[in-house]
Amino acid sequence: MYPRVFAVDLHDVDGDRFQDSRQAGFSWYVLTTTLLVSLSVISIGWSFGVVNVSKSIICQISPLGPGNTHSGEFPNRIPFSNSAWTIAVGILAVGGFLGALVSGAISDSIGRRNALVVNNGLCLAGSVLMGTATTAVHFTLGRFVIGIACGVASGVANTYVGEIAPLKWHGFYGSFFQLSIVIGLLFGQLAAMHATGGTGWRIVVAFPGVFSLIQIALLPLRVESPRYLLKAHHINEARHALLTLRRGYDVAAEWQESLLSLDVVEINASNVRYHSDQWSATAAAASAVPANDQADANALDKNDSKLTMKTKGHKAVDDNVAASSLTFAENMPVERATHVSGVWQTLCGRTRDDLRHLMACCIVLMVLQQLSGISAILFSDSGVVRDILDPFSPLSAPWTCVVVCGTSLPAIFLCLACVDRLGRRALLLGSLGGMSVCCVLISAGLFYGPNSMVMAAVFLCYFVFNMGAGIVPWFIISEVIPSYSLSAATALCCSLYWVMSIATGLMVPLIENIVPQWLFVIFGCFTLAGFLLVMLFVPETMNCPITEV
């Protein structure tokens, strides 16, 4: 039996009147924390978007000409060869892979919040390197550094938000990841298209540094993930963080589930139960309530032996009273210490629970994001959009990519409204099924025409992608994987996402050169296979605690 923890009103100690925190509703604190973390994800989309349309602005393929290439200490353009520019663009994904690979170890060693703060320092360094670049190597190094930061952010941000979000709103807060990527892509491309003269492009490529400065200043003011703090044996800090995130709710059941997800075999409850001579909780409660409420406080102690923390409204009373009224010893007796399961142990099934089936589902969903053909749609340097529109105007393809991102925002907002009502499976099946149909339409248009059907199918394909297949994989990992393996699982899935980003970036141009009309036939086969796999193997996780998945 685990101790029960309450956040109750100063004049009301009747725990039965407080709702289970697993049913907690909308929280401004969690929302603002998620929005703050999302700035790291916006940097990912921004870093992809700025180079999508700015090749002619940043680089000069021919050697530097005299007198018209420099503005002060920095050149207006940087000399690149075609191959050097390709490397500079693609190396972001290489850095992303390396960053995602180590993200789990970093977040488990210093914490989710602290990992994001440190990572923003790395992002700031990459932004400065790109903004001050004078050579192709200098610019490429900046892209690589900021790519590592993007990879770390892709892993840690998902883990952090997944561990602080309330159960009933988990999908809502988790969907902010894809929303942030799309916003970054959209505004990054728009900013690059308007940086037409002088060295304005330097401000554009270095702008993620602004996001980093904001997070470095504000993230330390937010609480750390309670589950990480429990894993690190910081019991009092974990209690404080959970009560901050769930003000006004009974957190007893959520606290117990957090303990069960940490691979702790058993906590000697008799050593952490309330005892008046050890914890003095009754005395603290009695001193905190008026005389006419004294009987209620005594009844609470007598009937339930529940540890209580007194708050008035949504504000805690004096810290000394709080500390005395609810205390978990830092050295809480644990018969077997928690441990963190690595990638290899999880893949081999050497964990408390056999997670191989769930890991396989998460990996397939993450990889499908790249195998669905989205890269061929979004990036104007390659793909069907360029082939159709470039003959009419060199700017048509970039502007169409911007419009595609813009029109996908309604799909994401619709998903935000539906994800915690319809469920994960329904959104995934509808999204992957719709994308399969769109791939058929695109392929038919490429074979037989007209181009208008191709463009309509392109818009529809990205729209339905953001209704499920582009959103659910990012947060479902934290819904099916317990905390003792969550960091390793997220790191593996995100690193494979970046690997597939590299692979599709290399393979799509090759396929386009050989059999361009068949490209979306291949993508359609992948999305259809994903539809069948979701139907057969992916569990529904909406409003379902990890212990019940």
What does this structure look like?
By secondary structure, the chain is mainly alpha-helical. The chain is built from 27 helices and seven strands. The strands form three sheets. Strands 1-6-7 form a three-stranded mixed beta sheet. Strands 2-5 form a two-stranded parallel ribbon. A hairpin with a 2-residue loop joins strand 6 and strand 7 (315-316). Mean pLDDT is 77; it is low at 1-15, 62-71 and 264-338.
Describe this protein with a few key phrases.
549 residues; 67% helix; mainly alpha
Portion of residues in helices?
Answer: 55-70%
Biggest sheet record: 3 strands, mixed
Strand fraction: under 5%
Which blocks of ≥5 consecutive residues have pLDDT under 50?
Answer: 1-15, 62-71, 264-338
Give the N-to-C terminal Cα separation: 22 Å
Q: How would you classify the quaternary structure?
A: single chain
According to DSSP, the number of beta strands is 7
**What would the principal axes of the Cα set say about the shape?**
globular
Q: Quickly count the helices.
A: 27
Rg value: 26 Å
Biggest sheet, strands in spatial order? 1-6-7
State the secondary-structure class.
Answer: mainly alpha
Mean pLDDT: 77
